[in-house]
Specification:
Strand order of the largest sheet: 1-2
Distance between the termini: 82 Å
Structural class: mainly alpha
Largest sheet: 2 strands, antiparallel
Number of strands: 2
Shape: flat
Length: 145
């Protein structure tokens, strides 16, 4: 008489156990949401306000498609007595944002280059043989600009 294969017995027991653990046919299960949902009326209201503001601004900017559109829109949105100061503020905010964006990109690229150089140097007694100094950062910043 042949002995039964333990692997076949184990597979058979698993399939019996899985079929007995299924939920009853009348049980309802709530599927998990695939993405984040708005749960209450306050969040729904804030989302509507935000979308409306974005659409209004997009409509204004597309209505006046000129070079320097942000100044042109400011002229039509802000009261006449405040146009000059708001145009000045918007111009400086735009300039500072653009300058900070370029500087942060150059700094990030310099950090990546020097980190790569450090990690590709030889590792001896728990330290890397190359350690970047301030002059190396300055050179990498200048090269990445």
């Amino acid at each position: 008489m042949a002995t039964p294969d333990p692997n076949k017995t184990l597979i058979k027991e698993k399939s019996i156990r899985a079929s007995s653990e299924k939920s009853p046919p009348n049980a309802t299960t709530t599927p998990r949401p695939i993405m984040a949902t708005i749960q209450d009326d306050d969040e729904r209201l804030l989302a509507r306000i935000g979308y409306k503001q974005e659409l209004k601004l997009a409509e204004l900017v597309s209505a006046y498609p000129t070079a320097g559109g942000m100044y042109f829109v400011t002229k039509h949105v802000v009261p006449k007595e405040h146009v000059a100061i708001w145009a000045w503020i918007i111009g400086w905010c735009n300039f500072l944002g653009q300058a900070a964006g370029v500087a942060s990109l150059a700094y990030t690229i310099a950090q990546l280059i020097l980190a790569g150089a450090t990690m590709n140097s030889t590792f001896i007694d728990g330290t890397y043989s190359y350690t970047p100094y301030a002059q190396h950062y300055l050179f990498a910043l200048t090269a990445s600009n």
